[in-house]
Amino acid sequence: MLKSQDIRIRDPFILPIAESQTYYLYGTTDVNPWNGTAVGFDVYKSKDLENWEGPFPVFRPDEDFWADQNFWAPEVHVYKEKYYMFASFKADDKCRGTQILVADGPQGPFQPLTNEPVTPRDWECLDGTLFIDEQERPWMVFCHEWVQVKDGKMCAIQLSDDLKTAVSEPVVFFQASGASWSSFTGDGNCITDGPFLYRNQQEELLILWSSFGEKGYAIGTARSHSGEITGPWVHDEEALFDTDGGHGMLFHSFSGQLMLTIHAPNNSPMERPVFFKIKEVDGNLILQD
């Protein structure tokens, strides 16, 4: 068994499966996720978020897979009785994009749903996440990356019911510099990372996302004033977590406790999955010690 502090992982994502009372932990697991040939994605399993089994391989690319580097930030969502992985990939001659993979179970093996990403092919994109709106329409929320636009954008596209194609033009929610807690880096970039959608107890639609603040990598929230995915989105003034950790997501434990997981610290190879209890107070998310 491994403890959380034994697992090196970036961009952690938890899928709780109630039937087996098992938490599945996905994330960026390559030894060198920045450079060189990518290997794939692994998963860890736990009953209590403290003791973990694994790693177990869930995706290894076939020889004809289009990407060979920067395998980042896999998320797994249950949709229409299948398990869909949203993950970022890149190749030297192709823009980074989010591709969707599918499997019959949480441990895969995951196979590409189509032969290319769903995000725009001439955009550098990453960190796609699935959102189902109140009309049961699937959307992908993703980042138009700072490497191409300098001031990173948060965007969404509506997907076909089978998740194979985009059926709308991209909608821009906001740019990174619009949040008071987000800062430009020394080379003039402002970063959007790691979106995750959550509807709070007051039925407000929130988005968690990451950027860099005064103390390093951070995570904040914005709210849709319409309650719809298309916004308009207004940022909360203060970051939810601002001390060198981020790329977070929310889930409920099997006891009903709302939880946040992030990776911290943000420097490789020290990043680890970190878990916080979250309390909702008047629609606000409050980290518990």
Share of helix among residues? under 10%
Q: So how many helices?
A: 1
Give the distance, in angstroms, between the N- and C-terminal Cα atoms: 25 Å
Q: How would you classify the helix and strand content by structural class? A: mainly beta
Number of strands: 21
What is Rg? 18 Å
What form results from the Cα inertia axes?
globular
Task: Provide the succession of SSEs.
Answer: EEEEEEEEEEEHEEEEEEEEEE
Say what the CATH topology is: Tachylectin-2, Chain A
Properties at a glance:
single chain; 289 residues; mainly beta; Tachylectin-2, Chain A; 5-stranded antiparallel β-sheet; 4-stranded antiparallel β-sheet; 1 helix; 21 strands
Tell me briefly what this model is.
1% of the residues lie in helices and 51% in strands. The chain has 289 residues and is an all-beta fold.
Question: Could you characterize the architecture of this molecule?
Answer:
This protein has one helix at 146-149; strands spanning 2-3, 10-17, 22-28, 41-46, 51-59, 69-79, 82-91, 94-103, 111-112, 125-132, 138-144, 153-158, 171-175, 193-199, 205-213, 216-224, 233-235, 246-252, 258-264, 272-281, 284-287. It is an all-beta fold and 289 residues long. It has one domain (2-287): Glycosyl hydrolase domain, family 43 (Tachylectin-2, Chain A, 5 Propeller), CATH 2.115.10.20. The strands form 5 sheets. A 5-stranded antiparallel sheet has the order 1-5-4-3-2, with no helix packed on it. The protein has a 4-stranded antiparallel sheet with strand order 6-7-8-9, with no helix packed on it. Strands 10-11-12-13 form a 4-stranded antiparallel sheet. Strand 2 (10-17) and strand 3 (22-28) form a beta hairpin. The longest helix is centred in the middle third of the chain and has 4 residues, at 146-149. It is globular, with a radius of gyration of 18 Å. The relative contact order is 0.13. The mean pLDDT is 97.
